[in-house]
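## Example pair
The file below holds two records. Each record gives the amino-acid sequence first, followed by its structure token line.
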Amino acid sequence: MKMSKLGYFSEFFLFPLLVGIAASCAYREKAVPDPVILTLTFLIAVFGWTFVEYLLHRVLFHHAPILSLVHEKHHDTPRELIGTPSWASGLIAMVAVAAPLIATFGLDLGTAATAGMMTGYLWYVFVHYASHHWHPRKGSYLYRARTRHARHHQNPEAGNFGVTTILWDHIFGTKLSGVASRAVTTA
């Protein structure tokens, strides 16, 4: 859905707050786990987000009935601020990410993993926004992300579903090659 600037960017305020709460909960246990283990759990979850991002984009955003319509609108008007309201993203994060992770790994590791997943999500939101609205320096990470994503917009069903990394597109054979047109990269 099309959003106001406040609505679109509110995730950059909400999710860091949620990450902070999740990280602080990891230390509420009486027997605080090893900080190295918590840090590794956090980092593994950040990496794990890249796989979730790939699956969400490839499967849900392009094939789920309601989500695919919203995502199609994004493809039609890539510079519009189209997305999920932050309250819905936050609710989904609590129900689909935090609750299962805490139930599986306990409060300490579960909240460390939740903080990692939310950090990965924030990175995705940032990179996706930058891909459509910034003109990064040629050769930089954001420039490469922008050109990869522009190729996806040229042929959305074919590939380049990863926004923050091309790793899963390599693994699953959905990496697109070639040069994106200037019209799409600046869109």
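Second record, same layout:
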Amino acid sequence: MLSVKFENKVRTMTAKDIIMSMVEGLKETSVILDMGTFGTSDENGFCYGCAATNTICKISGITFTPDNIDRVITRARVINSKCMFLDFFERAINSLRLADLTSYNYFANKGGFANIAKNTSPLYPLRNDYTQRELASYITLANEQK
């Protein structure tokens, strides 16, 4: 039976923990940042990932390689997760970085992990060229969580 360590860890995290893992994952990128991907590699062996990929790396403590980044099934295997859970988590984090808390909470409910309460401060979508001000809006959101 597949161990579900990643799932268990995420399910015990608070909304603040998840948001801050995304922020820290973006600050300490494990793979080259490209918000248009959920993890790919090119012919030169460079790994590309989005906010979700870097959040997963931050939480799991694992850095993806060209051999395991391209498909959700291989990413799930590497971090000890079920594919469906990882898909929900990646979609939730992608929604979060787009400042779409409704979609984040939809996928969080599907995956059984923490919902994020509505923000009272402005929240900015994060794209490849995000600013520190935009990223700081997520720290504010994290600090607003109970």
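Notes on the second record: Residues 5-144 form one domain. The CA atoms of residues 34 and 84 lie 23 Å apart.
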